[in-house]
Amino acid sequence: MGNELSAEERRDRDKRRMEGFGRHISEGQNLRVNKTINMFTSLESSDNLTQHYEKRQMETGGHAADWTKSLMEKLAALTPAPELAGLGALAITIIIDIIIDNSSGPPEESTKEALRCVFAEEKASEVWDHIDECLKRCVMHINNTEELVGDIRRIEVQLSAAITRLKNSMVRDGHMTSEALKAWVNGAAFHIQVLIHLVRLGGIQSCDPVERLTSAYLSDLDPLFKKHREVIRGKCKEFDVEDRSSDFLGPHYEFYMIDDCSEWHERSYGLTFEQYCEVYYDRRYVTQKLKTQTYFRDVRRNLQQLVDQRGSFNVH
Predict the structure, then answer these.
(1) What predicted TM-score, i.e. pTM, was given to this entire model?
(2) Cα(44)–Cα(250) distance, rounded to whole angstroms?
């Protein structure tokens, strides 16, 4: 009797065991907003664009003079303007990569390819098609605001509908995967930037629609991640092994959890399979959800500053 733990001691022991289990769980597949969107649509978009240009310039080595000349022919006339911020900065990075590709071979990973990989999931291909078209139009009409506004307005409606269909396929139709959720997060982030760019260019007269859209996407994160948790939980298995190596003591059991990646984790006696599943998901994905929420909240908080940006780029 004297060796029995009190209820508080058992709680402390169980807490230590779960913390120990959690420390061995690595972060899950990256579901956050892609760094390409983060870098080139942020308040530091012009600085990040300059860094990208200088990095590509160094990578070209002996071909630098040739592609710098081509770049000057296309972009030297650009002056600081709202058109060059956000999606404008992203369009210029794509132009830089295209010129490098034509003059000295493709870079290790182009900006556009890094973004396209986010939408590799088959269900997300429609979202990527509209983003791809939007970026193409931003490149085509980098010097023609009127044409660009018309194109972006048309594409924005199509992109919005595609993002809604992707969400419904995950939440309602049972097609939730980590890849699809990642594509939705990035499609939503890009869609917000499309509306911000329309406000910059005068295609929308106020920030109200952008603020409402951002709030709607923030609300969507809860049901999406809830469904994602359910799917990951459904892939985890409970497994008990009987060990008869010490028969004189009677049967001895070892308890395991097999996660969604088929990794085995030994469970401590007295702790439930459900507890392990909860800690497993929390360690792999909850921080990512919180960071994604922070991204959308930061965009909403900085909305007026993002709209008021005047992007700049100098070829040198």
Answers:
(1) 0.88
(2) 67
